[in-house]
Amino acid sequence: xxxxxxxxxxxxxxxxxxxxxxxxxxxxxxxxxxxxxxxxxxxxxxxxxxxxxxxxxxxxxxxxxxxxxxxxxxxxxxxxxxxxxxxxxxxxxxxxxxxxxxxxxxxxxxxxxxxxxxxxxxxxxxxxxxxxxxxxxxxxxxxxxxxxxxxxxxxxxxxxxxxxxxxxxxxxxxxxxxxxxxxxxxxxxxxxxxxxxxxxxxxxxxxxxxxxxxxxxxxxxxxxxxxxxxxxxxxxxxxxxxxxxxxxxxxxxxxxxxxxxxxxxxxxxxxxxxxxxxxxxxxxxxxxxxxxxxxxxxxxxxxxxxxxxxxxxxxxxxxxxxxxxxxxxxxxxxxxxxxxxxxxxxxxxxxxxxxxxxxxxxxxxxxxxxxxxxxxxxxxxxxxxxxxxxxxxxxxxxxxxxxxxxxxxxxxxxxxxxxxxxxxxx
Length: 426
Fold this sequence. Notes:
This protein is α+β, with helices and mostly antiparallel strands. The chain folds into three domains: 2-59, no CATH class; 124-169 and 306-426, Glucose Permease (Domain IIA), CATH 2.70.70.10; 183-282, LysM domain (Membrane-bound Lytic Murein Transglycosylase D, Chain A, Roll). 30% of the residues lie in helices and 17% in strands. The protein has nine helices and 14 strands. A hairpin with a 5-residue loop joins strand 8 and strand 9.
C-alpha cells in the first residue's frame, strides 16, 4: 500500500516536470470558459438572488417572527381580497346556466324540507291540462328565457293558458254536451248565476243578457231562466232590420249570423223571428243616452285620478315588468308581500282559488262581456259570488304558480278573447 502511494506521487512529479507546458496549454481554454460562465451566468444569478432577498426582507420587515408574517404583513389583506374576488367571479361564471325554478335544490336546507308533495306542485303546474279557448295567444314559454327581463316572469305553456273563466278550482272541466236550441232552466236550492253559467259552459254575461239581468240581480229557487246554446245574444227581428245592420249592432260578422241561423240569404228575415248572434254583445247603453252639461262645466277642470269607464289600476305599485303582446296575454306589475290586488271594476267574483300555472287566482265578471283575472297571489280575500266595487282589495300579492317573483299578472278578457289591459287602465 505504501509502495503504491509512493509510486503514484513519483508519477505525478514526473508528469509535472516533463508535461507542465502541455498541461498549461490544455488548461488555458478551460480556464477561459470557466471565467466566461462565472461572469455571464453566475454573477447575474447571484445579483438576482440578492435583489429577491432584499425585497422579501423589506416585505417581511414589520414582523420578526416567521410564523406571524402572513397575519401581520401589510400586504396580506390585499392578497386575501384578490383571492376572494377570484373565488366569487369563478362561482358566478359557473352559475350562469342555473334556472330560477331549480335554484337552491342542491342545498342542505332544501334536502331537509323537500318531499314528494313539493315535487307534486310542479307536476300540477306543468300538466293541469286546462283547455285554451277563444284565442291563439300563448303565455311566455319556459323553453327560452330572456335574461335581460325583470325577475318577475311567468312560465306558462300553451296548454296552461286559458281564456275560459269561472269554474271550480283544481277540478278538471267536464264535457258539456253541444246544444242547438235555447233551453229553460229552473233554479234549484243553492244555485247562483255563476254556477248556472258554469253548468252549461257559458260566460256569466250570456246568462245576464238573455234574461235582462245584471250582476247584482238575485235569483230564488223555482225561478226560470233562459239558457242560450252558446255565448252571445238573442235578437228579435224588427221591420227596419237587415242582416248587415244586425251584425254591425252586435259587433259580429254577418256571415256568422247567417250560417248559424241557417238563413238562405241575407234578405230571408222574418219580422218577430229570434236570431242567435254567436259571440255578440249588447250595445252600450251609455252610447245611446244624450246628456247635457252646463256652460260652467266647460271652464272647470275634471277631477283628477278618476279613470274613464270605471276602470282603476289593479295594484299598489306601478312598475310594469312585462307588457301585453307577443306570447304574453296580460300585464305583469311588480309588488311584494305587502301589496295587494284590487278589483279594476265593479263586478261579481266568479272564481277564487288555484288555477294551474296561474297559482292563486281571482276572476271577476263585470256583466258586459268583460272578465278580469288577477293571478299569482299569496292569499285571496274574496269568495265566489261576492259583489266587489272598483278599488276593493281582493287578494295579497305573491308568487304562486309558475312565477319567479312577487307580482300580479292582470288579464282583461272580452267575450273569451284576451285584450291589452293598458287599453283600459292607466
